């Protein structure tokens, strides 16, 4: 009896470590967004995006601080945070979803869809994003590009500036993952 | 058997502990992973002036502000008849440049009273978010002004006007502000004004004042602002009033516009804080309409780390 329990104990503990290794994290993920109009091009980049993938369930989560976006013009950084995205009230943008038909064991590159909820400016919206997943010896990297409509997230643009800010913003992302250890 | 029970107990605790980790939401896991760096409050005020006086805000490194500050007013019982728009205009034109993120230099000239001024502004402390460590933003302000114009009436020249050094005045301010919530910020500004000379012996050369100012955001781009400067030891040779302003700030892209109603005719700090000659009301000659227009040029156009 005693030995069985001991065995079970080690098994669960061992299994526990195993499951933990199924989670991979990216701490310096990159997200950039671009707004191209004839009047003005706006570009911003965030190099401190966090992302975690649970390989056992194919679940992915992404979280970033809006204040960490850097702009070419320092005043834009201020306007972005204070007047548009209101980062005092909604400091983060997040994504939570699952990678459809993703096989973690497959080496090389595979293109998959990620389906889930994107939350920006306190508004959550269901999106599907195409991504390429690179698996080299168990090290994963995700990259892709997609577009969001400004009006979907209740971001108010004053009429005078509608020609300066594009109606759809293109977003590129890249995450490089490493095993997650608490 | 007792031993067994002990073991089982440990066993279940461990299982429970493990499962609690697995059950945790992935986003919650990420929340704990954010680096623990201090987060600073941004945009306590948006512009470097609340309305008539300086705010704690500086322009960032490599940013040039081209600024005009104007006051419009009517002359009561004007013999020449009423002008179409206003009788008098005074404008201060200035350039203000961010040498570093914390240090701004500016210089300008005012048309009506002929004051040329230069200032340095240094951001000493920044308010931090979600912590009690640094609840205030503190900025030091120092200006020097030179009054080039001599008024015809001797009584309006409260300083001597013979030597260059007679016409100088210096203003030092400690600007302390707190952003209470995303919409409301307030500032208190202990102020010391030193005038190099006094034409009348009874007038103090050193004057103390306390400025208070606040802004309330109405929307993403519009805020309502107010400012009041309480003068502790006013001039004796002339009657002066405390400067007050109530206005609206409108910030759009590279342009920032400020509209206000005020009783301060002068624009440079030492002059409007100590030598405002009329009270705040809507009578001709007392009511001043103020308009500040700021255009911002960025000289460092690359993606850089800023906070």
Automatic annotation (TrEMBL), chain A:
Gene3D superfamilies: Lipid/polyisoprenoid-binding, YceI-like (2.40.128.110). This is Lipid/polyisoprenoid-binding YceI-like domain-containing protein. It comes from Aquimarina aggregata. Residues 30-176 form the Lipid/polyisoprenoid-binding YceI-like domain. InterPro entries: Lipid/polyisoprenoid-bd_YceI (IPR007372), TTHA0802/YceI-like_sf (IPR036761).
Automatic annotation (TrEMBL), chain B:
InterPro entries: DUF5777. Residues 45-296 form the DUF5777 domain. This is DUF5777 domain-containing protein. The lineage of its organism: Bacteria, Pseudomonadati, Bacteroidota, Flavobacteriia, Flavobacteriales.
């Amino acid at each position: 009896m005693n030995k069985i329990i001991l065995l079970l104990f080690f098994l669960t503990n061992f299994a526990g470590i195993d499951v933990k290794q199924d989670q991979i994290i990216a701490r310096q993920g990159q997200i950039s967004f671009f707004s191209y109009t004839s009047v003005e091009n706006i570009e911003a980049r965030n190099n401190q995006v966090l992302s975690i993938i649970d390989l056992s369930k194919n679940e992915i989560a992404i979280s970033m601080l809006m204040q960490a976006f850097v702009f070419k013009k320092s005043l834009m950084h201020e306007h972005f945070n204070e007047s548009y995205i209101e980062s005092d009230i909604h400091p983060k943008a997040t994504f939570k979803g699952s990678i459809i038909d993703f096989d973690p064991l497959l080496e090389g590159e595979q293109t998959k869809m990620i389906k889930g909820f994107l939350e920006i400016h306190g508004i959550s919206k269901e999106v599907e994003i195409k991504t390429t997943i690179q698996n080299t010896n168990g090290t994963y990297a995700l990259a892709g590009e997609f577009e969001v409509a400004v009006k979907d997230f209740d971001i108010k643009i004053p009429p005078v500036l509608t020609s300066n800010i594009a109606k759809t913003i293109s977003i590129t992302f890249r995450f490089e993952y490493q095993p997650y250890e608490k | 058997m007792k031993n067994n029970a002990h073991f089982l107990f440990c066993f279940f605790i461990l299982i429970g502990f493990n499962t609690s980790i697995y059950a945790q939401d992935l986003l919650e896991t990420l929340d704990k992973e954010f680096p623990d760096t201090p987060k600073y409050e941004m945009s306590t005020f948006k512009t470097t002036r609340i309305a008539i006086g300086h705010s704690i805000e500086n322009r960032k490194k490599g940013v040039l502000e081209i600024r005009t500050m104007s006051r419009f007013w009517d002359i009561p019982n004007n013999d020449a008849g009423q002008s179409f728009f206003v009788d008098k205009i005074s404008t201060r034109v200035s350039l203000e440049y961010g040498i570093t993120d914390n240090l701004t230099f500016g210089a300008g000239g005012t048309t009506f009273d002929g004051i040329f001024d230069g200032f340095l502004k240094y951001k000493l402390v920044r308010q931090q978010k979600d912590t009690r460590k640094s609840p205030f933003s503190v900025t030091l302000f120092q200006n020097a002004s030179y009054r080039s114009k001599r008024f015809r009436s001797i009584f309006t020249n409260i300083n001597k006007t013979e030597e260059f050094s007679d016409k100088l005045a210096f203003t030092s301010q400690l600007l302390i502000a707190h952003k209470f919530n995303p919409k409301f910020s307030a500032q208190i500004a202990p102020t010391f004004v030193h005038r190099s000379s006094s034409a009348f012996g009874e007038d103090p050369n050193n004057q103390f004042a306390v400025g208070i100012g606040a802004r309330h955001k109405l929307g993403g781009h519009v805020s309502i602002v107010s400012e009041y400067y309480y003068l502790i030891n006013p001039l004796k040779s002339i009657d002066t009033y405390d400067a007050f302003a109530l206005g609206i700030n409108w910030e759009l892209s590279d342009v920032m516009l400020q509209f206000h109603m005020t009783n301060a005719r002068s624009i440079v700090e030492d002059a409007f804080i100590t030598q405002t000659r009329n009270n705040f009301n809507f009578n001709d000659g007392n009511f001043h309409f103020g308009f500040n227009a700021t255009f911002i040029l960025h000289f460092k156009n690359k993606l850089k780390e800023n906070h």
